[in-house]
Structure formats: structure tokens, C-alpha cells
Design brief:
This protein has 306 residues and is of the alpha/beta class. The protein has one domain (44-305): NADP-dependent oxidoreductase domain (TIM Barrel, Alpha-Beta Barrel), CATH 3.20.20.100. Helix content is 42%, strand content 15%. It has helices at residues 9-18, 24-30, 56-59, 61-64, 67-78, 91-101, 120-134, 150-163, 179-186, 209-216, 230-234, 252-260, 276-284, 293-305, and strands at residues 37-39, 46-48, 50-52, 83-84, 111-116, 139-144, 166-172, 193-197, 219-223, 266-271. The strands form two sheets. It has an eight-stranded parallel beta sheet with strand order 3-10-9-8-7-6-5-4. Helix 5 runs parallel beside helix 13 (276-284) and helix 6 (91-101) packs parallel to helix 7 (120-134). The chain binds NADP nicotinamide-adenine-dinucleotide phosphate. NADP nicotinamide-adenine-dinucleotide phosphate binds next to strand 10 and helix 13.
Length: 306
């Protein structure tokens, strides 16, 4: 990682203090130089393990302007993250996002994904629109959204990779209903990336898909780490267990992320947020000690018992 991408220790401690983390032992345990990286198996390229989901702030550029998303993205970059997941909306909105990607301090740093989410020719147009709107010749990762018209789009994506329009190609799912179809696809194809839902409250990917990705050398992007916010709503009146702090866990956001992050299959976890403080908190969940297997089991049992 470039030195510029590293989160300065003084900034780091100041952000921790702003988040209310003041315990000296916790600060020492958390204080480290940079966000951990994981390798993309197909190339060995390293990516930071916390990313930004295709957030509401991106879809609201038309209404609210570009500064809200720029602020979130700067926060992610300042904390050592780089991956941002997107999909094309409308050209006016997406060209606003393109202007954010060209801003000084942001330009050239994010790892940008896009998706094809419509059938047939309309889907191919979506890819072209992303490139044009984002002002990129090459997208970092082009994905088939929720396996939409998969066997039409997959050859197109392969062509994109061959011609240099996409550095990597992949597929996404975000609910259990598509797991069997994804497994069938993986029996004959090896995408660079697959995106799958996984969290402390949605753990089924552990059974087959995550081990399969490891065996096959497929990078894994995790989505729905907070079940699109349902996780927080369910836990609104539930206290953190008193043993959580000893594992470096001080919030429900950290509780889910620190459960997910130690999984050896994952490359990056996408967190969706419109709030820079939440972005910082999510990024910082990757700093410091991670729970061991026994603690992860205890965490899962605690959630299951609620
Ligand atoms: N099939 C697909 O390809 C697919 C499907 C689903 C999702 N995804 C990807 O995965 C990403 C993430 O999944 P998701 O959309 O289900 O969202 P998520 O990250 O599981 O949850 C987002 C919700 O959590 C809240 N939140 C985030 N950080 C928080 C924090 N530290 N404290 C309290 N609340 C917090 C956000 O509210 P605030 O805005 O207030 O922070 C928002 O309501 C998406 O953005 C998208 O890129 C892909």
C-alpha cells in the first residue's frame, strides 16, 4: 500500500476519541498503521478489507449534490479503504459520481466496481454507461447483479476483460434463494470475484459458498453485513454482552464486522452508509485484534439466542 493511503496514527486516535473509544488498553490494541489487506487470488493484487457499498448517497447525487458521497469516500480513503461498489442509475446521477472520482485527493485511488442488472442489450448498455459516466477507460470490476440474465451477460463480461474494459469480472448474490444457481455456475466458470451476503445474522454462506471460493481461488466481496440496516433495528434495545469489550468490540457495528472479517475466504466487506462517522467506525473495525474461533462461536450463539 502507498504511504499516502495509510491512516495517520494521530488522526486515528482522534477519530477513536470522537467515537467515544477512550479506554487506553483498547486504544493500544487498536492502534496500528493501516487497514489490513487481502489478496485477490487470480492476480495477487491486495485490497483493503473494508469497502463502501452502493450507498443511498450515490443515488441521491441528483437531489443533494456530490459532496455527501465525496465526504464518505474521503473518509474511507483516509482510513485505508479503497473498494467502492456501484451500479449505474441514470446518466446525470452517475456523471456526478464520475466528478467525485476525479476530485483531487480521490482521483486514481478507489477500486471501482459496477454491475449489469438488466436483461440483454439493456444490460450491456449499463456497462458502457458506467464507463462513460465515471470517466474511466477500464472499470476495476464488472459484475452480473444477482445473476441477472447470467448466461447472456457472462460471455460479454469475459469479452470486456479480454479487451481491457474490465480488470476483473464477477457475479453477485445477496440472498439464499440464489445460492444453488451460483453453485451451478461455479461448476463450469471461475469468476475473479463473487459477491455474497454474509453476516453474524446471515451465516449460511459459511456452509458451502465461502469454502468453495477458497478452493477455487475466487475473491469474495461480502454484502449485507448489517442486513441493510435490519440488524441494527433488531438490536436497538439489546445491550452488547459484557464480554465484548475484552474482544475489542464496542458497538453492534463492530460486533458484526469483527465476526465477518476473520473468515479466510473474504477479500473485502462492503458497508453501506450515508454517514461519515459510521464509515469511520466501520473502517476502524478492521484495525486491531480479531476474535478467535471460540469467541466467534460465542458471538454467533449470543445473536441466535436473542
Ligand atoms: N445483489 C447485489 O449485488 C447486492 C445486494 C445487496 C447489497 N449489495 C452491496 O452490498 C452493500 C451493503 O449491503 P446492504 O445494502 O445490505 O447494506 P448494509 O451495509 O448491510 O446496511 C446498511 C445500513 O446499515 C447502516 N449502518 C452502516 N454502518 C453503520 C454503523 N456503523 N452504525 C449504525 N448503522 C450503520 C446504514 O445506515 P446509515 O446510512 O445511517 O449509516 C444503513 O441503514 C450495498 O451497498 C451494495 O453495494 C449488493
Amino acid at each position: 500500500m502507498l504511504f499516502d493511503d495509510r491512516f495517520d496514527r494521530r488522526d486515528f486516535l482522534a477519530t477513536l476519541a470522537a467515537l467515544g473509544v477512550s479506554n487506553v488498553a483498547a486504544l493500544k490494541a487498536l492502534a496500528q498503521d493501516s487497514m489490513p489487506l487481502r489478496r485477490v487470488p487470480s492476480t495477487g493484487e491486495e485490497l483493503p478489507i473494508i469497502g463502501l457499498g452502493s450507498s443511498k448517497v450515490i443515488s441521491e447525487i441528483g437531489a443533494n449534490g456530490t459532496e455527501p458521497v465525496a465526504a464518505i469516500l474521503r473518509t474511507l480513503l483516509e482510513h485505508g479503504g479503497r473498494v467502492i461498489d456501484t451500479w449505474p442509475r441514470d446518466p446525470a446521477n452517475d456523471s456526478g459520481f464520475g466528478r467525485v472520482l476525479a476530485e483531487p485527493g480521490i482521483a486514481g485511488r478507489p477500486f471501482v466496481t459496477t454491475k449489469v442488472s438488466e436483461d440483454g442489450a439493456a444490460g450491456v448498455n449499463q456497462l458502457e454507461t458506467s464507463l462513460r459516466s465515471y470517466g474511466m477507460d477500464t472499470i476495476d470490476l464488472a459484475q452480473v447483479f444477482s445473476l441477472t440474465d447470467l448466461y447472456t451477460h457472462w460471455p460479454t463480461l469475459k469479452g470486456w476483460k479480454e479487451s481491457g474494459k474490465a480488470r476483473y469480472i464477477g457475479v453477485t448474490v445477496s440472498n439464499y434463494d440464489l445460492y444453488d444457481e451460483l453453485e451451478t455456475f461455479l461448476a463450469s466458470e471461475t469468476p475473479d470475484f463473487m459477491q455474497v451476503n454474509y453476516s453474524i445474522s446471515e451465516r449460511r454462506a459459511e456452509e458451502r459458498l465461502l469454502p468453495l471460493a477458497q478452493d477455487r481461488g475466487i475473491a469474495v466481496i461480502i454484502n449485507r453485513p448489517f442486513m441493510n440496516g435490519d440488524y441494527f433495528r433488531r438490536l436497538a434495545n439489546v445491550p452488547l454482552p459484557d464480554w465484548a469489550a475484552a474482544s475489542g468490540i464496542h458497538s453492534w457495528a463492530e460486533f458484526s464486522l469483527k465476526y465477518i472479517l476473520p473468515h479466510p475466504a473474504l477479500t473485502t466487506v462492503l458497508t453501506e452508509t450515508s454517514n461519515p462517522v459510521h464509515m469511520a467506525e466501520n473502517a476502524m473495525a478492521s484495525y486491531g485484534a480479531m476474535p478467535d474461533d471460540a469467541t466467534r462461536q460465542r458471538m454467533a450463539a449470543y445473536i441466535d439466542a436473542l
